[in-house]
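Narrative of accomplishments. A recurring question from our advisory board has been how the design workflow behaves on a single, concrete structure rather than in aggregate. To address it, we present the structure tokens for one chain from the evaluation set, followed by the sequence designed for it. No filtering or post-editing was applied between the two.
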């Protein structure tokens, strides 16, 4: 790479794209110097304009495509470019799946320094029908000409754009958001206004249990009053018989964080139910629950397969949330211990175990990196450990405990290939071998990819 950037701001140039970043931007190289261009695809030739130059890389804008990729398609969503929620709609679905597989392989090699002749990365497991998959909508409200609008923040702004349909959202959620917006408009309710910290209605969340047909609606508001409550709730219930729970969450703070601390049930139950496979889950307004139910089943089945349980094992499920993976594992193991940092989620996990008459699962609230070493000291030794950490990956102390405890198998479920690769390196250095990695497409049309990795202790 040259020390002086070989390109200048505002320069026009013809380039050929060779790669795609994990954020979905095309990568072209001039004498090895990378230029990132949103919307461009590998193999395309195009004219670009340089928009920003840094020491080791530059950004450009796509001006004219001269040779199109075979994998380019017209994005089906009319607000694709403004929204930014999806990054890959201009790439065919087959192209997306191949991109995600390659990304996982590249990162395991580059960051994890894994010997890729030994590790199998399988083709990404995709969906037959990769649209309308989300079971949860979380939509900000604003106003235009005195009326409520609901949609999304325009990319890199705080401006809300009204949206009538989101193609990755379940139709029921879309319909509910539209109806609530209309009903609240009839009663003249006001949206929260970020700049002046005034107004009332901040966000609306709708969650739909696709396997039970139960719906929860959450009003997130600045204050805990509710103008025209009775009339509004009646209209919602009349229009949507699927609604089993209506909840108000109050967030009085000046913040980007969506939820506040106060949650009140306005009508119906505190929970809705959904099933994954043959297990039933109670889900409350604040619980983490995977957003793509169809692919969640695919992911959990793979994790279960990699755990290779015979019924005699003790298993630890770290970062267990509301106990979803734990309860899957419990049916095939002797004993499962789940740990999770959010106390409410652990309450849900215990209730979910009861709900399914599962008696061999125990749950504890706390940091996985603190609770598991404690268990180990008390003599609890797992044959298999499953981890499913957030994007930042596993804490080092947890990885060290795994290396001390030496379970025969580790199953690593990850939503971030970068931290997965980093953590696999630590486990490999400590005596584990990564055998296979299965990417699963949990979030079609976005850059995100979920993986399950199977590791065994070398004898
Ligand atoms: N396995 C669950 C949840 C995975 S999401 C499922 O599939 O539904 C990751 C979870 O890790 C979240 O519930 C989050 O609250 C939890 N978490 C984050 N940091 C943690 C820590 N240090 N120790 C334990 N749990 C943690």
């Amino acid at each position: 790479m040259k020390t002086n950037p070989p390109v200048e701001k505002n320069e026009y140039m013809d380039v050929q794209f060779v790669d795609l970043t994990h954020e979905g931007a095309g990568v072209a190289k001039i004498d090895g110097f990378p230029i990132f261009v949103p919307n461009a695809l590998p193999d395309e030739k195009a004219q670009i304009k340089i928009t920003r130059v840094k020491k080791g890389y530059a950004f450009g804008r796509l001006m004219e495509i001269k040779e199109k990729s075979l994998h380019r398609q017209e994005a089906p969503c009319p607000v694709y470019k403004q929204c930014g929620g999806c990054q890959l709609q201009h790439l065919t679905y087959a192209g997306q799946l191949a991109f995600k597989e390659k990304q996982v392989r590249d990162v395991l090699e580059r960051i994890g320094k894994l010997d890729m002749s030994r590790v199998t990365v399988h083709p990404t497991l995709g969906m037959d029908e990769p649209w309308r998959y989300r079971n949860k909508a979380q939509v900000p409200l604003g106003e235009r000409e005195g009326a409520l609008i609901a949609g999304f923040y325009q990319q890199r702004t705080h401006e809300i754009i009204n949206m009538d349909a989101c193609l990755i959202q379940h139709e029921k959620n879309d319909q509910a958001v539209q109806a609530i917006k209309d009903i609240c408009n009839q009663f003249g309710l006001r949206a929260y206004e970020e700049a002046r910290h005034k107004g009332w209605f901040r966000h609306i969340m709708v969650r739909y249990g696709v396997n039970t047909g139960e719906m929860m609606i959450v009003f997130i508001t600045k204050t805990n009053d509710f103008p025209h409550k009775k009339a509004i709730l009646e209209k919602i219930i009349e229009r949507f018989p699927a609604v089993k729970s209506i909840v108000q969450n109050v967030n009085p703070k000046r913040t980007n964080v969506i939820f506040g601390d106060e949650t009140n049930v306005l009508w119906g139950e505190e929970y809705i139910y959904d099933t994954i496979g043959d297990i039933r889950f109670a889900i409350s307004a604040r619980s983490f629950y995977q957003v793509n139910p169809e692919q969640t089943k695919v992911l959990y089945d793979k994790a279960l397969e990699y755990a290779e349980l015979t019924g005699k094992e003790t298993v630890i499920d770290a970062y267990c949330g509301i106990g979803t993976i734990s309860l899957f594992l419990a049916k095939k193991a002797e004993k499962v211990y789940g740990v999770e940092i959010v106390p409410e989620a652990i309450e849900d996990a215990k209730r979910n175990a009861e709900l399914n008459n599962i008696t061999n699962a125990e749950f504890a609230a706390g940091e996985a990196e603190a609770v598991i070493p404690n268990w180990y000291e008390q003599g609890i030794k797992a044959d298999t450990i499953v981890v499913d950490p957030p994007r930042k990956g596993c804490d080092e102390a947890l990885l060290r405990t795994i290396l001390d405890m030496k379970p025969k198998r580790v199953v690593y479920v990850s939503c971030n290939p970068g931290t997965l690769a980093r953590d696999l390196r630590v486990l490999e250095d400590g005596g584990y071998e990564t055998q296979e990695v299965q990417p699963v497409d949990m979030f079609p049309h976005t850059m995100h990819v979920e993986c399950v990795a199977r590791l065994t202790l070398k004898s």
